[in-house]
Design goal:
The chain is α+β, with helices and mostly antiparallel strands. It has one domain. 33% of the residues lie in helices and 21% in strands. Strands 1-2-3-4-7 form a 5-stranded antiparallel sheet, covered by helices on one side. A two-stranded antiparallel sheet has the order 5-6. Helix 2 packs antiparallel against helix 3.
Length: 126
Amino acid sequence: MDDPLDNLAKSMSYRSVEPLSGSTGPEMMRDALNKVAAFEGTPAEKADLFETYVDHVAEQFPGFSSVRMPTENSSEFVFTGSAGELLVISPSGTIYRGTVGSGGITFNSQNQAIPNYNQLTVRGLK
């Protein structure tokens, strides 16, 4: 039988990540995106890592947030920021950026996000 505390520790282990550099929220997010883009994990692991970094930034800069949206394709991950920023991790693990207002996503009848890759920009290392 699995030990519930051991399972909890395993599920929380991804919370221990390399510290972010930068003294402002945008600087820290730039570093987070670089780390996520360079990370060799699956798209789901990249999404989890991004959420972890967002949590770290939000701890230092209250009001900073990002929300993972439900998607039509379970191997795509869509995040929206408080000012309409959009981050998509594609099934191949490529990171795209854009804005909600520019048509970067649409929604199906179940209110699941569908990325419009033609309206998004590939986000590489910077």
